[in-house]
Amino acid sequence: MADQLAKEAANNKNIEQCYTKIPNSAVWSELKELSVQLWQNEWERSSKGAITKSFFPKIEDRLKLRLNATPNFAATVTGHGNIKSYLYKYKITDNPMCLAKKVIKQWTTSYSIAHS
């Protein structure tokens, strides 16, 4: 009897399809895309991380990169660490300027990268 009912259901064109199986890979791909979009929206709305945003304005582009996240790399892209403007902000040094080679310029992350 079950075989007969299954055969009738398979041949009946008037039965609504109530389930379509989606591959796991499609679900994971869609979830990843959605999470990156949500992350990007949050990234754009946040007032924090301005220096990091200058290096990585788009989350999707950053995720494509294979980066070796060393302490020096983290200090550079966050603007934290042994950078004169950061040390001056927290009153660790008296002057945020670079005095090397008689060029007086505020020592920021961008300046540090340009003169490494």
Topology, element by element:
Elements: H1 2-11, H2 24-45, H3 50-55, H4 59-64, H5 71-78, H6 84-89, E1 97-98, E2 105-106, H7 109-114
Antiparallel strand pairs: 1-2
Short descriptors:
116 residues; mainly alpha; two-stranded antiparallel ribbon
Mean pLDDT: 80
Structural class by helix and strand composition = mainly alpha
Helix content: 55-70%
Order of helices and strands: HHHHHHEEH
Give the biggest beta sheet.
2 strands, antiparallel
At a glance:
By secondary structure, the protein is mainly alpha-helical. The protein has helices at residues 2-11, 24-45, 50-55, 59-64, 71-78, 84-89, 109-114; strands at 97-98, 105-106.
Overview of the structural elements:
There is one protein chain. With 116 residues, the chain is mostly helical. The protein has a domain at 50-116. The protein is 55% helix and 3% strand. It contains seven helices and two strands. Strand 1 (97-98) and strand 2 (105-106) form a beta hairpin. It is rod-shaped.
